[in-house]
Amino acid sequence: MMPSAMRAIVQRVTRAQVRVQSHVVGSIGRGLLLLVGFSTEDTPDSGRALAEKIVGLRLFDNEQGRMDHSILETGGEVLVVSQFTLYGDCRKGRRPSYTRAASPENARPLYEAFLDSLRDLLRGHDVNVSQGRFQAMMEVESVNDGPVTLLLDSEKVF
């Protein structure tokens, strides 16, 4: 059995939004855009651990222009978008395989638990959490700040 391996793309943004059928369902100003994917092995605990890692990441500049502050210290906003394609395996052929991606029935509670963990960790820190719409065709628009983009894979982070 493989270890749980939730994945997240973390982008520092000046703004981001998600639209479903031309309607904005989530929007943020300065903060973090999180694209998250869940594997067949994930649990709510792996989501909590990754949420803890993300909120502690020092991705925001201090007075000297060095990335030294987390979103807990700077405030801002977080936009979370579920993206099963983070588990696309392109090693064979030309069509990605998604066999390691959690099914929608299993991924939805993991996504909701991840959101709950983020909100819990950010409570009292002046950080708003928005979200996309699970299992919808979404248009994600963002302005990457820096650019700062990180790939977190819980198999490699913990």
List the helices and strands and how they pair.
Elements: E1 7-20, E2 23-28, E3 31-37, H1 44-56, E4 60-61, E5 67-69, H2 71-74, E6 76-82, H3 104-122, E7 127-131, E8 139-153, H4 154-157
Parallel strand pairs: 3-6, 6-7
Antiparallel strand pairs: 1-2, 1-3, 1-8, 4-5
Helix pairs in contact: 1-3
Attribute tags:
158 residues, alpha/beta, 6-stranded mixed beta sheet, two-stranded antiparallel sheet, 8 strands, 25% helix, 37% strand
The helix content, as a percent range, equals: 25-40%
The total strand number stands at 8
Measured between the Cα atoms of the first and last residue, the distance is 17 Å
Our estimate of the beta-strand percent is 35-45%
Listing every helix as H and every strand as E from the N terminus to the C terminus, the arrangement reads EEEHEEHEHEEH
| Major sheet summary line | 6 strands, mixed
Secondary structural class: alpha/beta
Describe the structure.
The chain has 158 residues and is α/β, with parallel strands linked by helices. It has four helices and eight strands. Helix content is 25%, strand content 37%. The strands form two sheets. Strands 1, 2, 3, 6, 7 and 8 form a six-stranded mixed sheet that branches. The chain has a two-stranded antiparallel sheet with strand order 4-5.
Summarize the structure.
With 158 residues, the protein is of the alpha/beta class. Helices cover 25% and strands 37% of the residues.
